Amino acid sequence: MVRWRWLLSALAGAGAASFVGGRVGLLAAPVAIAAAWVTLGRVEPITVRREREQARRELPHVVRLLGTALAAGAAPTDALEVVAEALPGAASRRLRPVAVRLSLGADPVATWSALAADSALAPLGRALARAQSGGVPVATAVTRLADDMARMARADVEDRARAVGVRAAAPLGLCLLPAFLLIGIVPLVGGLLGSLAL
Questions:
Q1: Span 143-156, pLDDT tens digits
Q2: Residue 197 — very low, low, confident or very high, per pLDDT cuts 50/70/90?
Q3: Which site among 13, 68, 112, 155 is 20 to 30 Å from 131 CA-CA?
Q4: DSSP secondary structure of 163-187
Q5: What are the structural domain ranges in the chain?
Q6: What class has domain 47-152?
Q7: Mind listing the pLDDT tens digit for each residue in 17-56?
Q8: For the CA atoms of the chain, what is the radius of gyration?
């Protein structure tokens, strides 16, 4: 869409001018062009959206492995490197700069807070920032986050399983209702009408 932004904006202006018509249409065209230009400029590229969704899907695995590495006694920087090498993907690509900043001596609270601004890895960033600022062991915070994420994933699966039954009710009703009418109601009404006619 961004590639065709100018054409789509011009089409929006032409559409507004022809729909409204007259002098008002000529005034509405630039407004429609500007609105389309701004809206299309804010459209997120599909590659960015796919990478963010992939990072969100990988996050529970990353958190579980990070918690295991931290519980084994690894420093947070080393644990991040191990996770990034063990689970290559979108989440690991986003964690590598954090590991580099921490290895260069950046403030851990500020680094984890910056990770909390990432929409895909925000839960991990918030948990680690709270742990660093509150003095809680990082391994404990990550293990707790992993347990919470596993619990949320189970609840999400159960909700989707319950939704299948609800979604299946409409097609089943559409299939069974005509059969019920044809087999149960139509013969009954026909029999009643036949007895009334006699």
A1: 888 888 888 888 88
A2: low
A3: 155
A4: HHHHHHHHHHHHHHHHHHIIIIIHH
A5: 5-43, 47-152
A6: mainly alpha
A7: 888 888 888 888 899 989 988 888 877 778 888 888 888 8
A8: 29
